Amino acid sequence: MSYSPLSACTCLWLHYLLLCIQAQMFVAEENVDFRIHVENQTRARDDVSRKQLRLYQLYSRTSGKHIQVLGRRISAKGEDGDKYAQLLVETDTFGSQVRIKGRETDFYLCMNRKGKLVGKPDGTSKECVFIEKVLENNYTALMSAKYSGWYVGFTKKGRPRKGPKTRENQQDVHFMKRYPKGQVELQKPFKYTTVTKRTRRIRPTNPS
């Protein structure tokens, strides 16, 4: 079977177009910015995975003291081991979203629509959810899950900064996690049990 020059040329042209499309798809895949996907997943709540509860203090890089939840008032003037500086932090296993509650007062650290840090007795609002960001300098920043770009921050005197005046690269929003004096991590490690044919045959014995 013979092919005309026109049909052969057409086949070559189609083949060339196919190669161009494949090359563009490859370049597009190489340039995919997975940070957008991670950020979208981070903003989504994880209501399926097991929650983790941790107890620690948040040391402020600027004030040199620890965040305190004093009922409705928030400050960063707490000494190491101060009862108001001990925070119960509930975190998801994915997404790094946390709710922070003062162990002594049972009030949650929240940020209202004006960007002011306040304590609330009910932490179910999204204003009381923060996204943990581990920075290159190993400090942690807490960004509001509801008001993107607004961070928990304090002045050198330990006074709260308003969210709109904060930036990720400011020292005012940098914190370090520290366990209270004489205390260890509240979270208990997972225990794994290996099940074999032998262990399945074992029956509990009643004490005599």
UniProtKB/TrEMBL annotation:
<dbReference type="GO" id="GO:0002063">
    <property type="term" value="P:chondrocyte development"/>
</dbReference>
<dbReference type="GO" id="GO:0030324">
    <property type="term" value="P:lung development"/>
</dbReference>
<dbReference type="GO" id="GO:0070371">
    <property type="term" value="P:ERK1 and ERK2 cascade"/>
</dbReference>
<dbReference type="GO" id="GO:0008284">
    <property type="term" value="P:positive regulation of cell population proliferation"/>
</dbReference>
<dbReference type="Pfam" id="PF00167">
    <property type="entry name" value="FGF"/>
</dbReference>
<protein>
    <recommendedName>
        <fullName>Fibroblast growth factor</fullName>
    </recommendedName>
</protein>
<dbReference type="GO" id="GO:0045766">
    <property type="term" value="P:positive regulation of angiogenesis"/>
</dbReference>
<dbReference type="GO" id="GO:0030949">
    <property type="term" value="P:positive regulation of vascular endothelial growth factor receptor signaling pathway"/>
</dbReference>
<dbReference type="GO" id="GO:0048010">
    <property type="term" value="P:vascular endothelial growth factor receptor signaling pathway"/>
</dbReference>
<dbReference type="GO" id="GO:0032332">
    <property type="term" value="P:positive regulation of chondrocyte differentiation"/>
</dbReference>
<dbReference type="InterPro" id="IPR002209">
    <property type="entry name" value="Fibroblast_GF_fam"/>
</dbReference>
<feature type="signal peptide">
    <location>
        <begin position="1"/>
        <end position="23"/>
    </location>
</feature>
<dbReference type="GO" id="GO:0005105">
    <property type="term" value="F:type 1 fibroblast growth factor receptor binding"/>
</dbReference>
<keyword id="KW-0339">Growth factor</keyword>
<dbReference type="InterPro" id="IPR008996">
    <property type="entry name" value="IL1/FGF"/>
</dbReference>
<dbReference type="GO" id="GO:0001957">
    <property type="term" value="P:intramembranous ossification"/>
</dbReference>
<dbReference type="GO" id="GO:0008283">
    <property type="term" value="P:cell population proliferation"/>
</dbReference>
<dbReference type="GO" id="GO:0001958">
    <property type="term" value="P:endochondral ossification"/>
</dbReference>
<dbReference type="GO" id="GO:0070374">
    <property type="term" value="P:positive regulation of ERK1 and ERK2 cascade"/>
</dbReference>
<comment type="similarity">
    <text>Belongs to the heparin-binding growth factors family.</text>
</comment>
<dbReference type="GO" id="GO:0005111">
    <property type="term" value="F:type 2 fibroblast growth factor receptor binding"/>
</dbReference>
<dbReference type="GO" id="GO:0005576">
    <property type="term" value="C:extracellular region"/>
</dbReference>
<keyword id="KW-0964">Secreted</keyword>
<dbReference type="GO" id="GO:0008543">
    <property type="term" value="P:fibroblast growth factor receptor signaling pathway"/>
</dbReference>
<dbReference type="GO" id="GO:0001525">
    <property type="term" value="P:angiogenesis"/>
</dbReference>
<dbReference type="GO" id="GO:0043536">
    <property type="term" value="P:positive regulation of blood vessel endothelial cell migration"/>
</dbReference>
<dbReference type="GO" id="GO:0005730">
    <property type="term" value="C:nucleolus"/>
</dbReference>
<keyword id="KW-0732">Signal</keyword>
<dbReference type="GO" id="GO:0008083">
    <property type="term" value="F:growth factor activity"/>
</dbReference>
<dbReference type="GO" id="GO:2000546">
    <property type="term" value="P:positive regulation of endothelial cell chemotaxis to fibroblast growth factor"/>
</dbReference>
